[in-house]
């Protein structure tokens, strides 16, 4: 395989092809092929993926598949599923797919069957979840737990927080769940407001247990508990980590620590014990339904030819827009209030995975990699930011997520939601021409303002209903879309070295903010002045 993507025959052909077709309009592509809506829709894991409103022809799709073949996508998918060390810069497998394999499967890494270990941990989680749900898990004063507070950040927060909001109708109503990520004291204070410490359980989730925010919040939570129930707060603390020693240092009893493995990345860890607060919320059965949804999409990704492979098609389209159209951002708009945290979740998944400037071999990349991901819930986003999507000068490929039936509430109102999603996709694709406006009697002086260029691509992901299984399939779809892009670009999607320098500097600056700090500041002049100004402003206050 050629190292430099631009040197591959497939990439060159795509460039020529792009020059040929970039003047085509979706209006014509759709008018010329009445079967396009059906032909360019694929289904898997109870999810349909409609990519008929994309700026592609059959030839484009063929060339993208050739590119995937040249970059050995199928072989690399197989390598990931086999447990090969696909996280090259950290020299580890990336085996999130093993977290949701059925008990009957086996993946051996360094002589250990990781699926067996996964199920041992899942069984422990299931038993714990049922104990909390039944009131059998009691706090220091003997009272059952009524609120579970998840303390974690990034992948140790976004997955459980997003999935909890998404699946609320399926959760135990006798229990409350809160999620605290920020080291800003306001976050923990807000989450614990009104709670009775005697009935509160904190789940401290951190793969490394070295994350400043989570450790700080765990200590603050201990103090909050101890002030109410006394020094022995162990019944109120549960841990999830790959670093057992650090969990013990935080005072979490070893029997209450759930295990993670170094081959699970934070942003793909929801199916591990990182999802324990969600497992308590959904119950063991509900959590396993979520895993089954993930697994169904995993199986599809691993075994379906690229022509009908949903995550692969989506990833190849992302490469097409980023590399050939220069699209700098991509957006996702779920038409479901319950999925309002999904854009934030996908931001971490895509941007932490694909925001890379060197290839696996450590050479500078020669094409643009990960796009900026953003989004919001539909229909709210329509009334706030869609103007730019319709008439702005920037191309933003857009994913719309729609469900055919509501989880809660009347069908009629849900239909209004879906109507809006379909209307946006249609308006973005077809636009409105000056002639159409003239025919409609629009005054001439406003016509150019009201012309809608159209030709703006959308995918529509449609499932029958938002359930644990469909949510699992949807997240796995995005995980594998990310893997597809990374494979084409030849980058490592499983590391995140870029976040380290800021953590290091924060650890150095934190003591410098202490009023007792007496040493010289040895940063650059801008940072020195900033720290100095902060201290002056802070200390001048009452
Ligand atoms: O700083 C980035 C990061 O390492 C993410 O990749 C991760 O999800 C998050 O921090 C939390 O890490 P941990 O689970 O180790 O606390």
What does this protein look like?
The chain is α/β, with parallel strands linked by helices and 542 residues long. The chain contains 20 helices and 13 strands. The strands form three sheets. Strands 1-2-13-12-10-11 form a six-stranded mixed sheet, with helices on both faces. β3 and β4 form a beta hairpin. α7 (158-166) crosses α11 and α7 (158-166) packs antiparallel against α13. The longest helix is centred in the middle third of the chain and has 28 residues, at 276-303. The chain is globular and about 75 Å long. The termini are far apart. The structure holds 6-O-phosphono-beta-D-fructofuranose.
Number of strand segments: 13
Strand content: 5-15%
Please state the oligomeric state of the protein chains shown.
Answer: single chain
Radius of gyration from the alpha-carbon trace, in angstroms: 25 Å
């Amino acid at each position: 395989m050629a190292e430099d993507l631009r040197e591959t025959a497939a990439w060159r052909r795509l460039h020529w092809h792009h020059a040929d077709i970039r003047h085509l309009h979706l209006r014509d592509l759709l008018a010329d092929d009445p079967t396009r809506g059906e032909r360019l829709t694929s289904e898997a894991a109870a999810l349909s993926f409609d990519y008929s409103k994309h700026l592609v022809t059959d030839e484009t799709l063929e060339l993208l598949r050739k590119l995937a073949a040249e970059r050995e996508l199928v072989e690399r998918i197989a390598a990931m599923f086999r447990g090969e060390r696909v996280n090259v810069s950290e020299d580890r497998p990336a085996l999130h797919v093993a977290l949701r394999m059925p008990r009957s499967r086996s993946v051996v890494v360094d002589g250990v069957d990781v699926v067996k270990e996964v199920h041992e941990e899942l069984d422990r989680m299931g038993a714990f979840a049922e104990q909390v749900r039944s009131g059998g898990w009691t706090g220091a004063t003997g009272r059952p737990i009524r609120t579970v507070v998840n303390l974690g950040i990034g992948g140790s927060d976004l997955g459980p927080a997003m999935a909890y909001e998404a699946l609320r109708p399926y959760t135990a109503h006798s229990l409350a769940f809160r999620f605290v990520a920020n080291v800003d004291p306001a976050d923990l204070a807000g989450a614990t407001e009104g709670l009775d410490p005697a009935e509160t359980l904190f789940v401290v989730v951190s793969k490394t247990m070295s994350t400043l925010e989570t450790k700080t919040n765990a200590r603050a939570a201990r103090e909050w508990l101890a002030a109410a129930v006394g020094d022995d707060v162990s019944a109120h603390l549960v841990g999830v980590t790959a670093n057992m020693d650090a969990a013990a240092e935080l005072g979490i009893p070893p029997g209450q620590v759930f295990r993670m493995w170094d081959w699970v990345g934070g942003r793909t860890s929801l199916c591990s014990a990182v999802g324990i607060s969600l497992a308590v919320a959904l119950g063991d059965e509900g959590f396993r339904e979520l895993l089954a949804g993930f697994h169904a999409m995993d199986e599809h990704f691993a075994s379906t030819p690229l022509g009908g492979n949903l995550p692969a098609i989506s990833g190849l389209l992302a490469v097409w827009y980023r590399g050939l159209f220069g699209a700098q951002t991509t957006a996702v708009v779920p038409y479901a209030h319950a999925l309002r945290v999904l854009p934030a979740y996908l931001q971490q998944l895509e941007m932490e995975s694909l925001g890379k400037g060197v290839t696996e071999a450590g050479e500078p990349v020669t094409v643009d990699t990960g796009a900026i991901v953003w989004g919001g819930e539909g229909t709210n986003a329509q009334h706030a930011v869609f103007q730019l999507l319709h008439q702005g000068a920037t191309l933003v490929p857009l994913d719309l997520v729609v469900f055919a039936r509501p989880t809660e509430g009347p069908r009629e109102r849900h239909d209004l939601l879906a109507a809006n999603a379909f209307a946006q996709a249609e308006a973005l694709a077809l636009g409105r021409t000056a002639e159409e406006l003239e025919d409609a009697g629009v005054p001439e002086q406003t016509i150019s303002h009201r012309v809608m260029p159209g030709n703006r691509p959308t995918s529509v992901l449609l499932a029958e209903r938002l359930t644990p299984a469909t949510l699992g399939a949807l997240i796995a779809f995005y995980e594998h879309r990310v893997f597809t892009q990374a494979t084409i670009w030849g980058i490592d999607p499983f590391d995140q070295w870029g976040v380290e320098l800021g953590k290091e500097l924060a650890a150095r600056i934190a003591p410098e903010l202490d009023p007792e700090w007496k040493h010289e500041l040895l940063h650059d002049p801008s940072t020195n002045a900033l720290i100095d100004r902060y201290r002056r402003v802070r200390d001048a206050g009452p």
